[in-house]
Design brief:
With 319 residues, the protein is α+β, with helices and mostly antiparallel strands. Helices cover 57% and strands 10% of the residues.
């Protein structure tokens, strides 16, 4: 005969109910604590997202700064909200990235790496408390780098840019190029630094092919030429260079004219600069003179032809 448990035993005891209540209470405490943690994390995430948006907005305020739309006091107030000291001079540093191996074309689309991933690497390099980095558009980032002594000194910015580009390639498989403006304080000053960096990023690859970091202060002449309306620049180029541009070896002659001016019209220095024999340089200069009808060894005309050659370089986008 099977034994049947006595279900009525201890029926009057409250011990099982009390144990069950205690267990439910402990479980409720765990659930409440987990819920609190989730709510805290959600609030922290929202706070971080709002901060990121504020940083991006501040960088765009500097890039698009117009004192008639947003006054300098308003921009300064926003910088204080981000923990920045308004009077600190900063250099605008621009970064463009794309997937390694992708041709340098605007229609290729953004690099398949998240913006936060790129920004983390950018901020690892530009980590001064007074640096501010944000995204502008897909694949393009801007840093307002504080100009301090030591590691953050303006003259060390190219070195830091090279380091950042190396990290982006190593960690994320991204190719990139950067441009650095000169340090300036205030909304208007940082805006000018940004504009200079943007121009250097656009003209630098044409003037210094193969380079990845471009310094605005080294590109003042191309920047000036780039500010001239295209039609006027084309007329100037045609008037000065004439049929030189029709020659099959025009790229070589153009390189010679640019090197001739930048080398100070010195046969020895220019030959070394162009890595050619002195006699080869003399032959090219004589050929340029015959085809153009200009005295290329005269400083005034040499500079004129130099500017026209640079303008032609910017037009083609190649050196």
């Amino acid at each position: 005969m099977a034994l049947v448990p006595n279900r009525t035993r201890n029926r009057g005891s409250s011990a099982p109910a009390e144990g069950w209540t205690e267990e439910v209470h402990r479980f409720g405490l765990v659930v409440r604590r987990q819920t609190e943690i989730l709510l805290e994390e959600a609030a922290l995430l929202r706070s971080r997202m709002l901060h990121e948006r504020a940083v991006d907005d501040f960088v765009r305020d500097i890039a698009l700064y117009d004192p008639e739309v947003v006054g300098p006091e308003a921009v300064a107030a926003r910088s204080v909200e981000l923990g920045l000291i308004p009077g600190v001079a900063r250099s605008a540093v621009l970064l463009e990235v794309r997937s390694a191996g992708v041709p340098d074309r605007a229609d290729e689309g953004p690099a398949p790496v998240s913006r936060l991933t790129v920004l983390r690497t950018v901020r690892e390099v530009f980590r001064d408390r007074q640096d501010v980095a944000g995204e502008q558009t897909s694949g393009r980032y801007a840093v307002l780098a504080a100009a301090h002594e030591g590691r953050a000194a303006p003259e060390r910015l190219p070195e830091r840019c090279e380091h950042l580009l190396a990290l982006l390639a190593e960690r994320h498989g991204l190719d990139g190029r950067m441009a650095v403006g000169e340090p300036a304080a205030g909304a208007a000053g940082m805006h000018d630094s940004y504009r200079d960096a943007a121009t250097a990023l656009r003209t630098g690859p044409a003037v210094f092919p193969g380079e990845r970091v471009f310094i605005a202060s080294e590109l003042r002449v191309p920047q000036l030429l780039g500010s001239i309306p295209p039609h006027d620049r084309a007329r100037f180029t045609e008037a000065v260079l004439g049929r030189l541009r029709e020659q099959p070896d025009w790229p070589t002659l153009r390189e010679t004219l640019i090197g001739w001016a930048e080398g100070g019209l010195s046969l020895v220095r220019v030959a070394e600069r162009l890595h050619i024999h002195r006699n080869t340089l003399l032959y090219r200069l004589e050929k340029i003179g015959k085809l153009s009808g200009r005295r290329v060894r005269e400083p005034g005309q040499a500079i004129e032809m130099y500017l026209a050659s640079l303008a032609d370089t910017l037009r083609e986008g190649v050196r």
